[in-house]
Amino acid sequence: xxxxxxxxxxxxxxxxxxxxxxxxxxxxxxxxxxxxxxxxxxxxxxxxxxxxxxxxxxxxxxxxxxxxxxxxxxxxxxxxxxxxxxxxxxxxxxxxxxxxxxxxxxxxxxxxxxxxxxxxxxxxxxxxxxxxxxxxxxxxxxxxxxxxxxxxxxxxxxxxxxxxxxxxxxxxxxxxxxxxxxxxxxxxxxxxxxxxxxxxxxxxxxxxxxxxxxxxxxxxxxxxxxxxxxxxxxxxxxxxxxxxxxxxxxxxxxxxxxxxxxxxxxxxxxxxxxxxxxxxxxxxxxxxxxxxxxxxxxxxxxxxxxxxxxxxxxxxxxxxxxxxxxxxxxxxxxxxxxxxxxxxxxxxxxxxxxxxxxxxxxxxxxxxxxxxxxxxxxxxxxxxxxxxxxxxxxxxxxxxxxxxxxxxxxxxxxxxxxxxxxxxxxxxxxxxxxx
Length: 435
Fold this sequence. Notes:
The chain has 435 residues and is mainly alpha-helical. Helices cover 65% and strands 4% of the residues. The protein has helices at residues 2-23, 28-41, 82-97, 102-114, 121-138, 143-162, 170-189, 197-209, 214-222, 226-256, 274-291, 296-317, 323-341, 349-356, 363-374, 380-404, 412-415; strands spanning 47-51, 55-60, 69-74.
């Protein structure tokens, strides 16, 4: 009976760990591997794991004639909190290394998930505003455009904070955010201000796209988890459709009020100094990481990697290969660098990768397509280009991880059990040392 109880306690701990990782955007392969590492570290062998978008299942059957112990946990989706993700990752690593016992790991985990956010809410809202200003800088926005983008991003954050309290589905949350950002841009275009509202709308689109899990869906599809990949892809498509619906509604309202598209230049991004563009990308990515409660050491890493990725994009985009290929090359660079240097900042690569690709998201292509549709023209090509860019970013990041994999000797033993490189989870084994 005591042994049976220990098995159930171990499975419960592993499921709780997997829930935090999955809700933080980790791939299904990483989640399954992390849960199995927890069970093995606690001395429970012969465990199989199953991961879907909404459920986690662990099954333990030591012999063929013994009854199986099965535990299922429903995934509770929480606001993104990289600080908790890092603490859970460190707890798993300590458990796998034998530095703590299962009871100590359970106590740590209970404390981590029960405590609130460590950052003031007003500071998070300001960070979202700075992210908007950073995106506007990458688009060549003037100081006035950056200010409007700041206001729009803070307003979007307000909708994302208010609507979940009333249990409004994510589709309508994204639609509301896109509508608010577009109305601010329409209002600006109705004044005598010398601004290009398209950059404000694009900023809102990029901010909302940052929460869409296209990278997780792509990772799951490549690593052999088609059910989870399909569910994540449907969720991403619905949320993106919400953004498109909200922006389209805002443009329609402006047109009905006579403000319309005459002051809008579809897809205009302007030209900016390379240094300003790179700084804007670093600012946007770092602000997103800060708003997601990442520790300051991770924010520094995110800013550096995002600046590098933006520089690579500008270098490739200046040639004739096209922006989609430029985004792909930049994503490969980001994925490889994050996989190699994240350990130096004591954070999982996922915490650096996701914010670093935010400035590369195809908000401008989505705006181009919607603006052209609003003018009665064909914007399908622009929307298709946005989809291609999003997939190129996701696949490029994962490819970068593969390319860097042979150089990451500390992860080799655990990664041999996976279909691909790991974005989160225990990377150290007993007796291993940093090099």
